[in-house]
Amino acid sequence: MSTPSSTTPTIIQALRVQGRVIYALMMREVITRYGRHNIGFLWLFVEPMMFTLAVTLLWAGLRLNHVSALPITAFAVTGYSSILLWRNMPARLIGSVLPNLALMYHRQVKVIDIFASRLLIEFMGATISFIVLTIIFATFDWMSLPEDLLKVIEGWLMLTWFGCALAVLLGALAEDYEIIEKLWHPLAYMIMPLSGAGFIVDSLPQAGQDAILWLPMVNAVEYIREGFFGSVIVSHYDMAYMVEANMVLTVLGLAKTLKISREVIPE
Amino acid sequence: MIRLRDICKSYHTSQGQHEVLKNVNITIERGEKVGILGRNGAGKSTMIRLLSGAERPTSGRIERSMSVSWPLAFGGAFQTTLTGYDNLRFICRIYGIDPTDKIEYVQEFSELGSYLREPLRIYSSGMRARLAFALSMLIEFDCFLIDEVVSVGDARFHEKCQRELFEKRADRALIIVSHDMAYVREHCSRLCVLSQGDLSIFNDVDEAYEFYHRAIHLQ
């Protein structure tokens, strides 16, 4: 029989416990959300894939090709996949503390672990969906593989960071202010057409380009597209600005999370 | 050992700050059986959450040099769409123990049999309580927290729990928080009374009883 350690843990032990808790929460969340029947946890990426597929077919059907010279399939896949990342992460964290309050009777389970487990699930779902769709479409010659894979990965990770930081901030704020939950969904819809998913910045007039790049995710979407199409398009981005924006969101989000973890009352 | 030092706890309410615990001090040694008596609303559950580490005090320090359980037989953390087995695995994962050799024990002790593989929403309340108790016995804590009288299942199962907890684990520390004088008296060597935010500690059981009795009727 095992005895839980009772002395003050070292940083390595603490990280091990946190890893264990996050993994346990992830498994619990995945089984709860997708169950064991039919394809089970595969829904994790089949669900976002279906969304992306639907949007891709819609865009292709509406012949939005005239927007740019880019192949519509690759344009839709990169665009909609990026929306999944920054839009779903906050949606999953807002209101995630309440249903898990009782779990916090186990001392090692903290608010940040609940956040981390849900973010990891979203990241995995969106990423696998992105990769699988790219491979499928490339196999059928509907789109070509990225010219600069490293750049795509960098852009994708920057977008992930942005999504996580925004999600943690909104998730933590939502514990204190109910209005966040009400506001996020309409706000996300409003930002969606501005997020760079449905257009390329180069097609805008100069003033519009400068304005739109204030939205951090637009920079990452442009960066990803440059990685994909490189020579075909002119991309506009300022990754240093995006790092700054992400840092600010991260610090604010973690500070707010720390505050609510101190005040949380397990049910 | 668990030591509470100058613990204060207050909550925000719509009527302003509500102070539940005022300057509470107590030390619980290994193997010690401590009962904390209090009326409804005296702050017993707050004490349990502070002792288990689920919640932080507003001010003061808590030192722990022994491992402390979650409230015994607590079933609130169950996810009812999951099976008993899933919930068992969750507990094992967060405490870092291997579930494979625990399945049989839980299956047998909880008397759930093949129901362990069914979702909790089809369990009766008795079945849930039996599972919760069995899961509480999975981790060998140094100190077990008991929030109110443990009454799980029928008389025979109740006896089984008593044996598992008070006999097989007689060397562990126990903290029982309850309003039931008789229950606390049966299992504890040291009694405390929680009244109006103050924790009074008694070494003499009768003295504690008298104090508690007076505290009940004064309010």
Descriptive key words:
heterodimer, A: 267 residues, mainly alpha, globular, B: 219 residues, alpha/beta, Rossmann fold, five-stranded mixed sheet, 8 strands, 34% helix
**What's the average pLDDT of chain B?**
89
Q: What count of structural domains of chain B?
A: 2
Helix content of chain B: 25-40%
Q: In one word, what is the shape of chain A?
A: globular
Q: What's the total number of strands of chain A?
A: 0
Q: Helix and strand succession of chain B? A: EEEHEHHHEHEHEEH
> What CATH architecture label of the largest domain in chain B applies?
3-Layer(aba) Sandwich
- How would you state the average pLDDT of chain A, rounded? 89
Q: Can you tell me the overall shape of chain B?
A: globular
- Strands of chain B, total number: 8
Q: What structural class results from the helix and strand content of chain A?
A: mainly alpha
Low-confidence stretches of chain B: none
Taking all Cα atoms into account, the compactness measure Rg of chain B is 18 Å
Helix content of chain A: 55-70%
Largest sheet of chain B: 5 strands, mixed
Summarize this entry quickly.
The complex is a heterodimer of chains A (267) and B (219). Helices cover 68% and strands 0% of the residues of chain A.
Please, could you describe this protein's structure?
The complex is a heterodimer of chains A (267) and B (219). With 267 residues, chain A is mainly α. Chain A has one domain. Chain A is built from 9 helices and no strands. Chain A has helices at residues 11-34, 43-61, 72-93, 111-139, 149-176, 179-191, 206-212, 216-229, 239-263. The radius of gyration of chain A is 20 Å and the shape is globular. With 219 residues, chain B is an alpha/beta fold. Chain B folds into 2 domains: 2-69 and 173-218, Rossmann fold, CATH 3.40.50.300; 84-140. In chain B, helix 3 (103-109) packs across helix 4. The longest helix of chain B is centred in the last third of the chain and has 14 residues, at 205-218. Chain B is globular and about 50 Å long. The model of chain B has no long low-confidence stretch (mean pLDDT 89). Classes of the chains: A mainly alpha (267), B alpha/beta (219). The interface between A and B is medium-sized, with 31 and 33 residues.
